[in-house]
Amino acid sequence: MDTTPKTWRLRVELDDSPGALARVTIRLAHQDCNVLALSVMPVPGGVLDELVVQAGPGVLPADLVDAVRAEGGRCVGITAADVRDLVDAPTAALRAAARALRDPSTVAEALRTVLGADSVTLEPTDPPIHDSATDHHREVASPAVCGAAAIKRGWAPFTQVELARGQALLDLLAAHGVTTPQPTALLTDDGMALVLRPGRAGDEDAVAELHSRCSMGTLFNRYHAGLRTVPRRWLHRLLSPPRGTTVVAQCADRVVALGQLIPMSTPDSAEVSLLVEDGWQGRGVGTALLGALAGAARADGRRELVGWCLPEESGLVRTAARAGLPTSVRREDGLLRVSIATEGARVTGPGPVESASRQVASS
Known about the structure:
This protein is α+β, with helices and mostly antiparallel strands. Helix content is about 30%, strand content about 30%. α3 (about 90-100) runs antiparallel to α4 (about 105-115) and α4 (about 105-115) runs parallel beside α9 (about 285-300). It holds the Pfam family Acetyltransf_1.
């Protein structure tokens, strides 16, 4: 039996009466639970209490909910928590805002931090608003910064206070001229100009040509199979993976590299893959792609990228090192499982399009 204490984050509504919260914490203490953090948010008709609770051995989430109900309260939501939930919220918000002011590519990540969201996607146009018991979507709009931000959190609805915080962040960024991240321009170490941008449906022919220009060895390292061309039916999934993200590197009218993120079954992880045309390898393209994908993963709440490599292939590990992302490697099912932390010492790389004069580190 696992006796490791578990940490949970609860949101509860209690009667507006003296001592209600104290009685809940006493019940939790009787179950060897320790309240590590508490915050109070005003909501229409009262307040919402958020607690971070370290449960005693054998205490289940249902036991915590029962303790709240026993004192006449209602548990609005409960989810697993970790040390990130113990960071002082105003401090975390200020740091996120400062980071977004310095680096517009982190706007989505900053919004996720301020809102406590599972994921944030910046949209060029207003996304649909959807709200259900299991899948909560809301919209925070600021036309000066972006068409809208589609935010998602499954364990509890967003409060108006949280949405106001998100809007305040976007207003702050707009006041300082920070715009939605645009396609990123960069120069290789030999002076060739590239653009990193999201893949789209119209890229099928360009991606097919990319594969046709790659050597058999490069394709084998990517797909672990001997193929010369990619079946046409694969192209759509490469560019529009279900729930995933694709970034392409383009030089003039050619796509010369492709990077992809696919969510894994564990919420903190996503599978990453890179394909760089032979003639563009060793020139920083893979480093830039991996950095962009790590940023997208952070904005989606992912803390780990997982790549699968042949035992003799070390290119992904070297690329991650040059991107400033820590890695660990283990052998699994005849392949190397490369685990890449999305947080790390970020490489000073190219910024938005107007910063194209900066060079990326070669890889």
